[in-house]
Amino acid sequence: MGEPLVSVIIPVWNGERFLAEAIESVLKQTYAPYEVIIVDDGSTDGSAEVAKSFGALVRYHIQGKKGAATARNHGVELSRGNFIAFLDADDIWVKDKLARQMKIFLDHPELDMVLGQVRQFYSSASGVIFNEESEIIPGYVPGTMLIKRASFFRAGRFSTQWRVGEFIDWYLRAEEIGLKSFLLPHVVLMRRIHDANMGIRERTSRIDYVKIVKASLDRRRKGAAEKK
After folding, report:
1. Distance, CA of 177 to CA of 173 (rounded, Å)
2. Chain-centre distance of CA 36, in angstroms?
3. Which of 70, 105, 127, 217 could connect to 66 by a Cys-Cys bridge, CB 3.0–4.6 Å?
4. Would you state the torsion angle of the CA atoms of residues 71, 195, 146, 132, taken in this order, to the nearest 10 degrees?
5. What domains, with CATH codes, occur in the chain?
6. pLDDT, tens digit, for every residue of 137-152?
7. What is the pTM of this model?
8. How far apart are the C-alpha atoms of 100 and 116, rounded to whole Å?
């Protein structure tokens, strides 16, 4: 596999409230990342100042407002590691996230990507609420994934046509071409629920999820028909 260097990509849009905590959760990993890349999707708040306050520990880049998919793709293009990981600017990694996943890769080099479990927590004007009894769910979201760089490009970049659900679209395409994944039984991501979550901001775009699944089914049917 070569030396396992991990590039971490954090897209941010007006995330000054939470960005520092997200970055710190990456920098405190027991398996140190090779680089941390912040891609600012045209923020109008203090996100740039927060990112730049970490100095040489992060690489900061800004683009016009083009959406999270474009920001992640830009981060991948800027990255130099042979493994890629993503974290949303309002979420937090557990400290051994990368270490657990890299161990799986070292034990099973045939894998393309490793994901993990998610626990949600809540932020409000009155502060942060961690509920240790909250449900743990399988993390089919960008923030849990560690993937080989070459494998990511086999599935292709994130599609920019969707306002929401671009990771589901990407993951379905990865499955269709046979990328091998492993889902850790451990929590690797703490997902913050708050009033500005993408799913809340983009309620009217939820029809994209239906369109994404239909597009995947159509591709699978077409592939099966061509094999006959």
Report:
1. 6
2. 13
3. 70
4. 170
5. 6-227 (3.90.550.10)
6. 999 999 999 999 999 9
7. 0.84
8. 9
